Amino acid sequence: MRRLSLVLIMTLAASSALAQSPHGSQLKIDCSSCHVPTSWKIDLSKMTFNHNTETSFKLTGQHASLQCVDCHKSLVFSNAKPSCNSCHRDVHQGSLGPNCASCHNTKSWLIVNVALIHERSRFPLVGAHQNVDCASCHSGYSRLYFPPITVACITCHSTQYYATTSPNHVQAGFSTQCQDCHNVVDVSWGPTNFNHDFFPLVAGHAISNCFACHRQGTTNFGGLSTSCYSCHKADYMNVSFPNHVAGNFSTNCQTCHTINGWAQASFDHSTTGFPLTGAHVSLQCASCHKNGVEKLSTNCYSCHSNDFASTTDPSHTKLGFPTNCAQCHNTTDWTNATFDHNTTGFPLTGAHASVQCAQCHTNGYQTPPPTNCYSCHSKDFNNTTDPNHVQQGFPTNCAQCHNTTDWTNVTFDHNTTGFPLTGAHATVACAQCHTNGYQTPPPTDCYSCHSTDYNNTTDPNHAQLGFPHNCAQCHSTTNWDNATFDHSTTGFPLTGAHTTVACAQCHTNGYTTPPPTDCYSCHTKDYNSTTDPNHIQMGYPTDCTQCHTTSSWDNANFDHTAFPITSGNHASPPLTCSQCHTTSSNFAIFSCTTSGCHTQSETDPHHTGVSGYVYSPTSCYSCHPTGKGD
C-alpha cells in the first residue's frame, strides 16, 4: 500500500513537474473540488464537484449511485463517452439503433409502456393491436431482435383476406389495403367502414346491401359506371308519363331527378338558356316540345307566328311589324303590349308620346324614320310667318327653339351662341341684330351695332375726344345712358379731388393716348406760382406727393422724419423752412446758427473742454441729430 501510494505520489509529482493533470488536459476544474488539501485522498463528504451542473451528463436514476470508476475506467475522465452503448452491450444487435434512451430510462432497464414507444414509430398500437402479443408480429422477439417490419395490413392479415368468402375478396378483386374497409381502431375485425366517397351513398343511395348494385357473384367490385342510367335504365324505359323514349329525353337522369326522391322530378329550364317566366311556367312541356325534347328555337315568332299573323289591332302583317315579339309583348301579359321607344335611341317625350305610330312610321317599321325634327315638321317650318322662317333663313334644327311639350311657345337659349342676352338686349327683336338672316351670326363687338350712338354722342363728344370703340368700358346693357368708367383699371385710381375733375381736363390729347401719371405734369402751374413758400426759389422737388395729397392740396404737410420738429423748442414757436434752410436752391443745406438761434457765444460755455470741438453752422446737428439739448 505504501509502495502504491509512493508510486502515486511520484507519478503526481512528475505530472506536477510537467504541469499536467493525470485526468487529461480537458478537465478544467480546480483540484480542490474533489481532493482535500491534507492528502490526495478523496473525501466524498467534502467534495464540491457536481456532476449534474459541471458536465453535460446528468447522473439520474441508477447512475446516481454508481462509483466513479464504474464509468471512468482511467484517470482521464474524458475517455468516458456519453452514449449508452459505450457502457451497455447492445442486446438488440443494432436493430433498434444506438439510442437506448428512446425506450429505456436510468431508473429501470425494463420497458413498461410499449404502447407509448409504438406511438413514436410508424405503427401506433390502436384497436385490437393493443392486446396483441409482441411476438405475434416481431418474429425475433425471443432474441430481443427487432428489425423494421412492414406496416401493411396484408402482411399479417393475408390469411383473413384469402379466407373471406362473404364477399370473396379475391374473386371481387378487393384491394389489399385492408384499412380501406376495416377500421384499425376497432377491437374486432368484423364491421367494415368502406369509404364510398367517390360515389357518396346518401339519401336514396344509402343502401346497406352492397349487392343491390354489385350483383351477387360479381367477381370485381370495381368498374361500375357512376351514371344514373347504368342502374336506372329500366326505370327510364318504362316511364309513360311522360314517355322518355318517345320524347327523346336525355339519359342524364339528374337533369330532372334527385337522389332524395325519384318520383318528384323537376327540370331547371334556365339551364337551357331559355328560363320559363310568366305564362310559360304553367305550360305543358309538349305544348312547345311537340316532337320530343329536342332543342327548340328561342325566338318568340317560332311559337307565336299564328298570333302575329292573326292580329288586326293593329295589323302586324300590313304594318310590317318586326317579328321580335319581345319588343312589345312579355310572358306575363300577352294582350297588353307596350313598346319602349327609348330603346330605339329616340325617346318619345311631350306630344310625341300621344302620336299614333303610323303617323311617323309611314313606310312601316322595318326602316326607322329619320330622327331630325325637320323631316316631320318641314311643313310647319315653311308655313310659319311670325317670324317667317324661310325668308329670315332660320336654321332647320327645330330643337334650338321648340320642344316636344309646347310647340307654339318658342324659346331660344342665346347663351349657347357665346353671346348671352342681358339687360336691354333681352328685349330686342331678333331681326334687329340678325339683319342678314340667322345662318351667319352677327359680330359680337358693341361698336358694330352702336356706331351711330358713338358718333352722335356730344356729351362728351366721343368722336372728337377719340374715345375707344370698346363701349363696354363705360356702358352696360342694363343702362346705356348712365355711363361709368372704372379708372382703377388704367393703373391710376382716381382719389380725392381727382374724382370730380372732368375727363378732358387731364385727357387733353384724347383717350387713345393715356396722359402721364406724375403730379408735376398736371400741376406745373401750381408749383411755379406758389409763393408761400416759393417752390422754385427754395428748390422744392417736383414730386408733389411728398407734401400734398389728392384730398387737400392747400394743407401741405412734409414729414420731417430726418430731423423731428414737432416737439421741443423747434415746435414752439413754429419755425419756417427758410429759418434753417437758408439756401433755397438746395434744401439739403441747412444751418443751426441762422436767425441767431444757436450762436457761438451762446453755445461756447457749454462745450468747454470738449475734445476736438470746432464750431460750424451745422455743428449742433453733428452732436444733436434729434434736436434735443441732451
Give a written overview of the molecule.
- With 630 residues, this protein is mostly helical.
- Among the domains are: 19-82, no CATH class; 301-360, no CATH class; 373-433, no CATH class; 518-544 and 574-594 and 615-630, no CATH class.
- Helix content is 22%, strand content 0%.
- It has helices at residues 2-17, 51-54, 68-71, 114-119, 134-137, 153-163, 169-172, 228-238, 285-288, 301-310, 357-360, 373-383, 430-433, 446-456, 462-465, 503-506, 519-529, 577-580, 600-603, 619-623.
- It is flat, with a radius of gyration of 63 Å.
- It starts with a helix and ends in a 7-residue tail after the last helix.
- The model is unreliable at 1-19 (pLDDT under 50).
Return the string of H and E elements: HHHHHHHHHHHHHHHHHHHH
Which runs of at least 5 residues are low in confidence (pLDDT < 50)? 1-19
Question: Whole-Å distance between the termini?
Answer: 122 Å
Structural class: mainly alpha
Strand content: under 5%
Topology of this structure?
Layout: H1 2-17, H2 51-54, H3 68-71, H4 114-119, H5 134-137, H6 153-163, H7 169-172, H8 228-238, H9 285-288, H10 301-310, H11 357-360, H12 373-383, H13 430-433, H14 446-456, H15 462-465, H16 503-506, H17 519-529, H18 577-580, H19 600-603, H20 619-623
Could you list some keywords that capture this structure?
single chain, 630 residues, mainly alpha, 20 helices, disordered N terminus
Give a short summary of the structure:
With 630 residues, the chain is mostly helical. It has helices spanning 2-17, 51-54, 68-71, 114-119, 134-137, 153-163, 169-172, 228-238, 285-288, 301-310, 357-360, 373-383, 430-433, 446-456, 462-465, 503-506, 519-529, 577-580, 600-603, 619-623.
